[in-house]
Design goal:
Rossmann fold; seven-stranded mixed sheet; 10 helices; binds S-adenosylmethionine
């Protein structure tokens, strides 16, 4: 049987490949979380802010209408989407950098506010991700890191993940408790990891559900925007990929029905202050 290497999701290439589908199906919805995050940290004109793992600029674009923004991502495909929108909108106060969120190319104390929306949770070295956010903030600065609740609780994602896991290496059954959980999907672990970097931390829940007119709309969007699925298309032989898609689609139709769909997308906001 063909095996999927899910670790490839941690490479810029996987995100380059999904960039167009992500922008078309996901980023407008994630903009709702970005707007909440900017309000939550009361970002104001004149501040210097950094957006780590910016993607297509889901937070950086609205932020750059308020103040000066430094946006970083390791995927050139994602940054290209952001660059073209910033050019269309003639946003001058946005600086784009291709780089790794675990080794930020900024001096200590450069920013008053730092964000990583649905990015840092997937860094292989999250401790470095948090400590880099801490390092580049000035004393008194604040950070907001967003992550997801466990995907197993969201039916459409649970079905996609279960079918994909059938093709991946089995999880280590002897792993310590929590080791197989999606990172930062548990509020207590999230608080501990962020606090270990030096932050005073508050964890808050945030949710915007995605409403779609029918199953076909949901499935055509997800199949182009889900990074693991787009990656599977490149890794698997054509037949194996077609049958994976069919298994997922059949289950979605059977278990969720053909009609209007709601995807709950509950998130955590980890809010940290640097004293
Ligand atoms: C789910 S998207 C989130 C994008 C955006 N923040 C948003 O809210 O829509 C995750 C982003 O993290 C980026 N990413 C993942 N690992 C990274 C790393 N080590 N350094 C920089 N960017 C990374 C990916 O390229 C992708 O753009």
């Amino acid at each position: 049987m063909s095996t999927l290497d899910l670790s490839q999701m941690l490479t810029p290439r996987a995100w380059d490949d999904v960039a167009a589908g992500y922008r078309a199906f996901v980023s407008d919805h994630l903009r709702l979380y970005a707007d909440d995050a900017l309000k939550r940290l009361s970002v104001s004109p004149g501040e210097r802010i950094v957006d780590v793992a910016t993607g297509p600029g889901t937070l950086s674009l609205p932020a750059a209408r308020i103040t000066q923004v430094w946006a970083l991502d390791f995927s050139e495909g994602m940054l290209e989407n952001l660059r073209s929108q910033a050019t269309d909108e003639e946003l001058a106060n946005l600086t784009l950098t291709q780089g790794d969120g675990q080794a930020l190319p900024y001096d200590d104390g450069s920013f008053q506010a730092a964000f990583s929306m649905f990015g840092l949770f997937m860094f292989p070295d999250r401790a470095r991700g948090f400590s880099e956010l801490y390092r580049v903030l000035e004393p008194g600065g604040r950070a907001l890191v967003a992550s997801w609740h466990p995907p197993e609780t969201i039916p459409a994602f649970a079905i996609i993940n279960q079918e994909m896991m059938e093709l991946a290496e089995p999880l280590d059954a002897n792993a310590p408790p929590g080791a197989n959980e999606q990172p930062l999907s548990n509020a207590d672990t999230f608080r501990r990891e962020m606090a270990a970097a030096g932050f005073d931390v508050t964890i808050e829940a945030n949710n915007h559900s995605m409403e779609l007119p029918d199953l076909n709309t949901m499935w055509s969007g997800l199949s182009e925007a889900h990074v693991a699925l787009v990656m599977a298309k490149k890794q698997l032989p054509k037949d194996a990929f077609a049958s994976l898609l069919k298994r997922i689609e059949d289950r979605l139709r059977k278990e969720l029905g053909e009609g209007p769909q709601t995807i709950e997308m509950p998130a955590w906001f980890g809010i940290g202050h640097k004293s």
